[in-house]
Amino acid sequence: MRILLWHVHGSWTDAFVRGRHEYLLPVLPEGGPWGLGRAGRNWPDTVREVDLATLDADAVDAVVLQRPEEISEVSQVLGRTPGVDLPAVFVEHNTPKGDFPFTRHPLADQNTIPLVHVTHFNRLAWDNGSAVSTVIEHGIPDPGQLYTGELPDLGVVVNEPVRRGRVTGTDLLPAFAEVAPLQVFGMKTEGLAAAAGIGTERLTPRGDLKTQELHRELARCRVYLHPMRWTSLGLSLLEAMHLGMPVVVLAATEAPRAVPPEAGAVSADIEELLRCARKLVANPEEARRRGVAAREAALARYGLGKFQDSWDGLLADLGRRPSARRRPDGQIPVSAQERKSA
C-alpha cells in the first residue's frame, strides 16, 4: 500500500516506516510540522518525500492521520475525504489534556475513521464515544544490548523539562540527584539544573543527541530513571529497556503494564524508587541482572515485528473498506495538478 502520513512523532514514525509498504511523507522547503519529510533520517528507500500540493490523489491508498487538522488538509489538497473516499485511520499518541477523565476525543462518535491508541491507558483515558477504537502498542527497532553501566549515574531522557515541569516529573529530580549524578538527554535541557535547584556537579544536560549516539551514551549510565507523571508511554523508556538498562519508573499511566518488577522498580512511592535507585547504583551486578530482565520484557511486548504485524492487519482491513477509490458523487478523484489546471 502507498500510505500518506506526516512526520509528527519521530520515534513512532521510525518504527512505522520500517514496515512492508510505501510511505509518502509531505515535505516543505521550510520543514516544520507540516513538511518535515524524512528530516535526514536513515530510513528505507520505501520512504518517499512528496509535495502534497502536486501529489496525484489517486496515488494514495490510505492515510494515517495524527492530528485532527490533517483531515481537512487532505480533503482540501487531494480532493479525497479521509474515511469517505480515502481509507483512513487516526493514531492517538497522547494522553488527554484538560478535564480528565471527561475529555472527549476530537474524533469521538464518528464511524468512518477508526481510532488507534498507542497504549491501553490512552484508550481507557479518552472518551472515544461510539467511535471504533483499538490499541496497537509501540514497536521499537532493536538497538541491541549496548548497556555497560560503567558510570554510577542516573540517565534521564526528557524533552523540554523546564517548560513542562510537573508533567515530566522535573520537580522529582532533586531527590534523585542526591542518590547519584543525573545525565539528562533531550531537547531544551539547558538551564535545567538552575530551574530544578540542583548543583551543576549533580546534573549534566546532554542535549538532543542523534539516536545512535543517544543510545551509546545513555547505556553507559548505571540506571535509567523515568519520572514522567503524565505521558502516553515514553519511548525512551522502552528504548532503555531494549538497551538492557535497569529502570526506575514512576508508576503512572501505562508504565505499570510496560515494566515488570524484576526490571528494576515501578512504583508511585518515591521513597521506594529512591531506595531502588540507590541499591542499583551501588551494585553493578544487580543492575546488570535487572537490565537483562528489562530487555527480555521489552523484546517480548514491544518488538518491531509484533508492531508491524498488527499494523499490517489493520491496514489490510482498511483496504477492504468500500470507500476506497471513489467520492460520494461517483467521480474518480483527479490529481492536484489537474485540478489546478482545470
From TrEMBL:
SUPFAM superfamilies: UDP-Glycosyltransferase/glycogen phosphorylase (SSF53756). Keywords: Transferase. It comes from the Bacteria. The keyword Lipid metabolism does not apply. CDD domains: Glycosyltransferase_GTB-type. Residues 319-342 are annotated as: Disordered. Pfam families: Glyco_trans_1_4 (PF13692). The keyword Transferase applies. One of its GO terms (molecular function) is glycosyltransferase activity. InterPro entries: Glycosyltransferase_grp1. This is D-inositol 3-phosphate glycosyltransferase. It comes from Pseudarthrobacter chlorophenolicus (strain ATCC 700700 / DSM 12829 / CIP 107037 / JCM 12360 / KCTC 9906 / NCIMB 13794 / A6) (Arthrobacter chlorophenolicus).
